[in-house]
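[audit] Reproducing an earlier prediction to check determinism. Same input, same settings, fresh worker. If the tokens differ from the archived copy the diff job will pick it up downstream; this log only records the rerun itself.
[audit] input (143 residues):
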Amino acid sequence: MKHLIVSLALVGFLVPLLSSAGSDEEAITALVKEWESAYNNHDAQQVLACWDENGVIASGARKTPLPKPKYAEYLPARFDLLPKLEVKRIQDVRVASDRAEATILLTNYPSPKANWRGRTEFQLTFSLLKGQDGRWRFVAWDY
């Protein structure tokens, strides 16, 4: 009987932890989809809403780090060169407390104005932070 009580206590402790990790992964997956949709609709405000206020966004082939306000200025030109992107799949989501990483397979579809032709498929890893409000936001990415 004593073992049964201890086992039930452990299950009662572990189930919320497991469901929390699952809900974090679901929230991060939803954020990635929200970002993809906002980008494809050229909704700069919604794209920026996916990023933490202190986020630093690497941009271009040289991965120039841009703080969020500078990225906001750059985003309309980005939409012009890369009007569409597609998240092919979310490969991995790792959560550790209030920090996480999500690795995705992404395809870019450039416009005729771009200085390269054809779609580009590559791996991108988002670094995320869970805010005081419980919402996940991007803080950085690497590609």
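[audit] rerun output stored. Observation attached for the diff report: The chain has one domain: 2-142.
[audit] end
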